[in-house]
């Protein structure tokens, strides 16, 4: 890969990448050749002035860097993260590793947040995602203090500072009951002014995702109304538990249909759907399809948090019914979620890792089919960034190049030697050092 990196760097603004492979599902339009048994197509790709100029049949190019059958993917999109709370684990670990422990630890840490603290951790996270090759991120922002929206101020600064490197979207997050009264309207105004997405959690303040209270529907209608009045899209944390009483997803879908809500809705987690009776699960999936809801799955975080009982092996994977949802026409994405905070002790905002682990946890293989879109084109569409996540002429040459040829080669290693292209140029960014956070966190190793 070092030789390939040097060859591309020496190629100038216009060059061919010869003998590349990619999942046919990521090539927009007519593929330049037949797909093999793994769903991969082989081709030559031309870069001109920072964009993909052509995707041509293999053998078209007579010169240019040779990928030797290695894969090329479009830059990935991370549609569900929490950048303002990232990397607090060293100073605020989750002693139980479960959902309630995460809520408690995060609330304790949040009480001491300052703009400088948030900004340092937030930007460190963007540096990591950028070095890994991610081109767009949606982050949920702690919004429990709508009269002092500190995370939103940091977000707006970093969104502008990182423009042209990572497209950054912001989304509110706080319990559903907190949208009542003047504070709910004030937060919705803050989101609208920032060009953000209105988000909530389908649990009440201080609680977990379990049986819905009687006042759930009026609160949900209030949330929808705030979005409708301001023309906002929705992104909701839903049913993040293994409790059969957590049945908010179907109510969200029915509410969207009843109200004629026309803007995009994304629902994350939806874990409890996997433990519902079959008939109810089918009805919920049908309602999501009718409402046009997209589902985003956070496989690593959910596997970490769900069904965690001291001294007992977990009995389920904590993830939702991705294959059944997609079979019904519901778009399904995967994303990083939390990174090194009480909700997930690990992670590095690397969408290659997310896709690799999602394949293993969710069985996104045999065949792979079009699941590679779940880490790029599908979340991009949910974010209104329909041009991202595809290999197509005219798109920016923001690409990941791998030495791996087949899918098992790709998914068997972390691909730490990948080459990241931004605008057709080799990205020289390095992953940030953990030690850069020591002074911010006031701690040592995490």
UniProtKB/TrEMBL annotation:
It holds the Pfam family Amidohydro_3. The keyword Hydrolase applies. It is an enzyme of class 3 (hydrolase). Residues 217-414 form the Amidohydrolase domain. Coiled coil: none annotated. Its EC number is 3.5.4.1. The keyword Plastid does not apply. GO terms for biological process: cytosine catabolic process. This is Cytosine deaminase.
């Amino acid at each position: 890969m070092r030789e390939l990196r040097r060859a591309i760097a020496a190629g100038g603004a216009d060059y061919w990448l010869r003998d590349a492979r990619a999942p046919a599902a990521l090539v927009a339009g007519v593929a330049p050749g037949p797909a093999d048994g793994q769903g991969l197509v082989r081709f030559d790709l031309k870069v001109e002035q920072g964009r993909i100029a052509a995707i041509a049949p293999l053998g078209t190019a007579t010169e240019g860097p040779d990928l030797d059958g290695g894969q090329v993917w479009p830059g990935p999109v991370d549609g569900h993260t929490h950048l303002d709370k990232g990397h607090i684990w060293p100073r605020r670990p989750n002693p139980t590793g479960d959902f309630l422990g995460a809520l408690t630890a995060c609330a304790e840490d949040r009480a001491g947040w300052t703009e400088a603290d948030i900004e340092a951790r937030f930007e460190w996270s963007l540096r990591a995602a950028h070095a890994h090759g991610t081109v767009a991120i949606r982050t949920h922002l702690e919004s429990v203090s709508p009269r002092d929206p500190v995370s939103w101020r940091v977000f707006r600064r970093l969104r502008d500072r990182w423009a042209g490197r990572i497209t950054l979207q912001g989304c509110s997050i706080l319990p559903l009951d907190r949208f009542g009264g003047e504070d709910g309207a004030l937060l919705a105004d803050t989101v609208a002014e920032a060009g953000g997405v209105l988000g909530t959690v389908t649990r009440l303040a201080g609680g977990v995702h379990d049986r819905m209270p009687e006042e759930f529907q009026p609160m949900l209608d209030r949330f929808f109304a705030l979005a409708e009045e301001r023309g906002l899209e929705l992104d909701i944390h839903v049913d993040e538990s293994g409790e059969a009483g957590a049945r908010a997803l179907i109510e969200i879908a029915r509410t969207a249909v009843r109200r004629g809500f026309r803007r995009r809705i994304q629902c994350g987690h939806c874990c409890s759907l996997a433990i519902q009776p079959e008939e109810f699960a089918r009805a919920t999936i049908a309602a999501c399809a009718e409402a046009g809801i997209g589902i985003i799955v956070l496989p690593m975080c959910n596997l970490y948090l769900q069904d965690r009982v001291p001294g007992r092996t977990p009995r389920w994977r904590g993830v939702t019914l991705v294959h059944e949802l997609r079979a019904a026409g519901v778009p399904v994405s995967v994303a990083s979620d939390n990174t090194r905070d009480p909700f997930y002790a690990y992670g590095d905002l690397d969408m290659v890792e997310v896709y690799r682990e999602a394949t293993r946890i969710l069985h996104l293989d045999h065949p792979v089919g079009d699941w590679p879109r779940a880490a790029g084109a599908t979340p991009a569409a949910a974010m209104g960034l329909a041009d991202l996540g595809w290999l197509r002429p005219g798109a920016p040459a923001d690409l990941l190049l791998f030495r791996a040829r087949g899918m098992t080669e790709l998914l068997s290693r972390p691909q730490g030697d990948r080459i990241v292209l931004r605008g057709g140029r080799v990205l020289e960014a390095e992953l940030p050092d953990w030690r850069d956070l020591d002074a911010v966190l006031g701690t040592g190793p995490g």
